[in-house]
Design goal:
The complex is a heterotetramer, with 2 copies of chain A (about 375 residues) and 2 copies of chain B (about 290 residues).
Chain A: H1 5-14, E1 22-25, H2 28-38, E2 42-46, E3 59-62, H3 65-75, E4 79-80, E5 83-84, E6 88-92, E7 96-107, E8 112-118, H4 125-131, E9 136-141, H5 149-159, H6 163-182, E10 185-196, E11 201-203, E12 207-210, H7 219-222, H8 229-239, E13 243-246, E14 251-255, H9 258-270, E15 277-280, H10 287-298, E16 305-312, H11 317-331, E17 337-343, H12 346-355, E18 360-361, H13 364-376
Parallel strand pairs in A: 14-16, 16-17, 17-18
Antiparallel strand pairs in A: 1-6, 2-3, 2-6, 4-5, 7-8, 7-10, 8-9, 10-11, 10-12, 13-15
Helix pairs in contact in A: 2-3, 5-6, 10-11, 11-12
Chain B: E1 11-14, H1 19-31, E2 35-39, E3 47-48, E4 51-54, H2 57-64, E5 68-71, H3 75-87, E6 92-95, H4 102-115, E7 118-121, E8 126-129, E9 133-136, E10 145-152, H5 156-167, E11 172-177, H6 188-197, E12 203-209, H7 214-225, E13 230-235, H8 259-268, E14 273-274, H9 279-289
Parallel strand pairs in B: 1-2, 1-5, 2-4, 5-6, 6-7, 10-11, 10-12, 12-13, 13-14
Antiparallel strand pairs in B: 3-4, 8-9, 8-11
The chains are: A alpha+beta (about 375), B alpha/beta (about 290).
């Protein structure tokens, strides 16, 4: 789950990490009022759950009321990577010397929180990672030790020359680590972290993502969620026990298991087709799940054919087949379906489906090819 | 031989009285797995499928000598169950639960490392040594005793691969579902080492997916340490960046973790990567016939 | 540092550990008012920093207002092991079935917090430890793991038969451990922890001691300190860099180093004398410390002779001797002194002291014997 | 030989720019201790007694190869300094600081155990291998090279004992002040094992005091594992119960930890306990002449 810059910085503030003076605004009028109050220059920044807003024109400096008004008019309502800008952050312009990057994420290899820092802040860290990976310092944090004062200081010594900044930095890193743990973050970033003209550290921007698996114990964070339409669908699917991600193709997929679902999409692509979605219905023969899944698929107008790929494991294929038949009887849909069953009791399952005059195929490759043929025939 | 488990392995089920725990305990027992105890706080003294239930892992281990534990516990408290297993004397923990908070896994893996306890999962289907012991939620009937070692981040995809291998007459020594979470227990490198050292394993199938760089690291490990034939498959070639494909760990972040990178890593060291699942047994037979 | 029962239970309450309804009272009138409000029976309990108050008559049950008045009159002003009772706790009387002991302390051997629990609560745990040590369950807590839920439950299963109590107990143990860490405790005890008639756990008594070395970061706890007159002297000494503990003998001791100070007392005792105090002046030749130490010793009217035992280590004996001479010149005291110096530059030091007509002796044994001779000659 | 340190031991001083750190660095250097680096955050690049100062332990270890660190850091942050030493690659940490919060020591000792790092102290005078290396605040001049291993919870009492031994012609292999805190690093048992295994140590002096049961445990250990002669002394026979005698760990609690119990524990296994300090060399000579 993602939150906006202004929300991340509100959390930083609560932990006494210095951030810019700023106000979130929903209208041009609000932007003007806020700018007048903060004093010029101000920076007007789009608040959307997408990166690269600077390049997209979603960040503008305003030196006058007119500037601020123009910026607000341009940014509010703008589309950034499919997200419509509904609010902007108006932040006091700050004079600064240097820009740093600091961030934390989960490192799969060391199985720990990874603290990252770079003297090359202010640009997208992915670019630094690509062009000059040595410029990013990485410190896996032993969970037993946490961000011990000495460790925070050790990191700070590698970033800052001045001892007063080392002390400020060490303090800030400890707070940031505490935020990460307290909120079950999956990503926390300050980019840039700047040295102001009066020699203090300040978080000019902030980014936080959270571990979806931990939201049950992070009610305050969960309340900040602003899902897009697609994400709302994904959440709704989750509530029915389905994992759904919409894509741009036209072959709807319904599969049990995430890995098999990915592989099914890959096979469609391999034979020249375009999957319309990722959909994992999990391990159950409950007809209701199939109905919910079908409703999800057919609500996407791009879907021209549905390919069902079930591997019977513990759940037997004949049970799944019965569920499918019941579901399809209730649905009465006119989108063609290709069904592929394999695994435990597959023959019995296929017999049940065939007896209902539903089209079945023998292998995943054949299923994909048949689905593509059907789409192309339309 | 085999890796990690065999017919003598004494297994404990944490969460045995729950719906999933009870159901799969029955399945494991039917397969022949030596389930010796269950744990369910407050249900000590009961039995499930004739298996005695204890209040704590420590009690169960003391009474039965179990060395392996499989966990069917709701995700919010599964991390604590892993810690209990390690503290209670278990040597290998298999955590089936899906949705365990990542920071709970960070804490658990650190503690288990200190204790010298092995972990598989969380969010995994478990493992099987065909004909001897199945500890997980795997459909035992599709497996066949043999000499292919298999490891995979995915469940049903594994079943598909295994059934293709079995149909092609290629039995398995041990198959391990390592799970789909970003922070998990045993991973490719450790398992590759075990398979390499296992006399009963002749060749290895590695099933990967998008997200992280475990496959790239596995390729590096194979290059340096593995002399047995290896065939790979990577799921998620069509997955869009920034989206979690079901598994918490299956996400392409900041342009890394993509299937292309992983396929290239294997092919650059001469490990063939199947483009279609059906190619796996074909490639394996080619390698074995060399 | 110790606090009173009522203060410990206030802390328990803050962590939602159930405690008896109760009020602290300073006068008989307050006790009567509180008893009427709480409803009978009530228990009136002396609040002093000493154990064994029950045996000393400092705890009384009151079933009527008269009872309460009598109890207050008897207990307030009472002396318990040298402590005068200045306040009592009036607590609602509670019906209960069973009494348990739970406590935490630091275990030197496992170098960890040790959780202890016993089904034999309600009596002094030291007696249980002596008579039936197996009745006390001990669990060293791995600081990495803390009081993990499973661990708390494991302990609770060994105490309680009913699963509802197991859950309550596990919850309580986790809170108690958090209190221990949060407050830098050195001892936390609930004795007895009871099962009330309605089947709930309740802390009937509470005890907390704290790590003096950590008080600098426990300002709230430090504010609860109520030192006795002797303890005030010890605190005051500490502020001058001296460690002082008053005893009942008549030979004042001034020594550098805690171990040597103990050994010096032991040698005095060995030869039949009675040390008047433990006094460690630390490792410095600063005359002011000697003056402060002398003032401390002479403020104790029991002190008839002062034995000074200095081992010159890094600090040279001649420097110490000069400090002593300066200090003694300023003090002009009439209590006889025996001085013993050894270690680095001892000969030079002894020469300086002898030149001032101060009595010096060759060994610790001789010093002790000379001091005893002087006392006996009075 | 000797235990723990010798003339080649490379020593780092944490807190070298402080008053105590600087003073004792000079004393150690004068004694001949191989001090190679100091650490003082923000003072990197300076020198103290011609010894280079670094900002972090890691920097200092990388630059100088120091393996032992001595800590002169204010008690409230000494626990963190111990962790920094262990994390920075140091193998033996000596913490002089007095008054470190107990829970900081609980955390530090657990972490050091995991890292395989040894600790002496806190609240200790350090240790010395006479004629080779002195790492601490010990008065080097009173020690004499020889074959008595000595361990003690006390500082000045140790100096008294050592000077009595030296006067009696009994030199020392290594003398270790283990410190007066309840939770500390190396203790009697570990040191007894080291002295027992050290060919240069012929006999052992153990100086204990009231509080805890470390002396009783040491007696048990001696009974089972130590064949070399041991002489003991226990300070605090006159200490009243419930009072801390200077050292945080020197307290008789709930009727246990008394000098009588400790003396009885040693005498019951045939270890003579000196009643007066002056008896230590006497008893030792008696044992050695047997």
């Amino acid at each position: 789950m993602k939150i906006h810059e202004f929300q991340a910085k509100e959390i930083f503030s609560r932990y006494s990490i210095p951030v810019t003076k700023e106000t979130v605004c929903y209208t041009t009028d609000e932007v003007c009022t806020a700018s007048e109050r903060l004093g010029y220059p101000v920076v007007v920044k789009a608040q959307v759950h997408a990166g690269g807003r600077g390049k997209a024109g979603g960040v503008k400096l305003a030196r006058t009321l007119d500037d601020a008004k123009n910026a607000a008019n341009q940014i509010l309502g703008m589309d950034i990577k499919g997200y419509t800008v509904e609010k902007v952050l108006v932040a006091q312009g700050v004079k600064f010397n240097k820009e740093f990057y600091v961030g934390m994420t989960i490192d799969r290899n060391t199985k720990s929180v990874l603290f990252m820092a770079s003297k090359e802040g202010g640009v997208e860290i992915e670019e630094v990672a690509k062009d000059n990976p040595e410029a990013i310092l990485k410190f896996p944090i032993d969970p037993e030790l946490g961000m011990a004062p000495f460790l925070a200081r050790k990191i700070a010594f590698q970033l800052f020359d001045d001892f007063s900044l080392v002390k400020q930095g060490a303090d800030l890193f400890q707070k940031l680590y505490k935020i990460f743990l307290d909120t079950d973050s999956s990503l926390v970033e300050i980019n840039p972290l700047v040295i102001t003209d009066d020699g203090n550290l300040l978080a000019l921007d902030g980014k936080m993502n959270f571990d979806d698996n931990a939201l049950f114990r992070q009610k305050e964070i969960e309340a900040l969620n602003e899902p897009t339409e697609d994400e709302k669908k994904e959440i709704q699917a989750k509530e029915s026990g389905l994992t759904y991600i919409r894509l741009d193709g036209n072959i709807g997929c319904m599969v049990n298991g995430a890995g098999l679902a990915m592989a099914s999409m890959d096979v469609i692509k391999h034979f020249g087709g375009q999957p319309a979605n990722f959909l994992d219905i999990g391990g159950s023969s409950n007809p209701q799940k199939v109905i919910d899944a079908m409703n999800l698929l057919t609500s996407d107008k791009n879907v021209k054919v549905i390919m069902i790929n079930i591997f019977g494991g513990i759940t037997r294929c004949d049970d799944v087949a019965k569920g499918l038949v019941t579901a399809l009887e209730q649905l009465k849909m006119d989108i063609p379906i290709v069904i592929r069953l394999s695994g435990t009791n597959a023959e019995e399952g296929l017999r049940i489906i065939a007896s209902q005059n539903l089209p079945v195929v023998g292998s995943l490759s054949e299923a994909a090819q048949e689905a593509i043929r059907l789409v192309n025939a339309m | 031989m085999s890796i990690l488990i065999n017919k003598d392995t004494k297994v404990l089920v944490q969460g045995i009285t729950g719906r999933d725990g009870s159901f799969h305990t029955g399945k494991m027992k039917d397969y022949g797995t030596n389930i010796v105890a269950g744990v369910s706080p407050g249900k000590g003294g009961q039995t499930v499928h004739d298996i005695p239930v204890f209040n704590t892992v420590e009690d169960a281990v003391k009474a039965t000598g179990a060395t392996v534990s499989i966990i069917f516990i709701p995700a919010p408290i599964a991390g604590d169950a892993i810690l209990e297993a390690a503290d209670g004397g278990i040597k290998l923990v298999i955590c089936i639960s899906e949705g365990v908070p990542t920071l709970d896994m960070v804490k658990a893996t650190a503690y288990l490392k200190k204790k010298g306890v092995q972990l598989i999962g969380a969010n995994c289907p478990g493992l099987i040594t065909p004909g001897e012991s199945m500890i997980g939620i795997l459909p035992g009937n599709i497996f066949k005793k043999g000499n292919i070692g298999l490891m995979s981040r995915s469940g049903t995809l594994t079943y598909l691969m295994v059934s293709l291998l079995t149909q092609a007459g290629l039995g398995q020594s041990t198959c391990v579902g390592i799970g789909g979470d970003p922070v998990a227990g045993l991973y490719y490198e450790e398992l590759l080492e075990m398979f390499q050292n296992d006399p009963e394993t002749e060749a290895i199938v590695l099933i990967g997916e998008i997200g992280g760089d475990a496959e790239e690291r596995a390729a590096q490990y194979i290059k340096n340490h593995v002399t047995k034939p290896v065939v790979a498959f990577i799921a998620g070639q069509t997955a869009p960046p920034g989206k979690r494909m079901g598994h918490a760990g299956a996400i392409i972040s900041s342009g890394s973790g993509s299937a292309e990178e992983k396929i290239a890593a294997f092919e650059s060291i001469g490990v063939p990567v199947a483009r279609l699942p059906i190619d796996i047994p074909k490639l394996m037979k080619e390698l074995l016939s060399k």
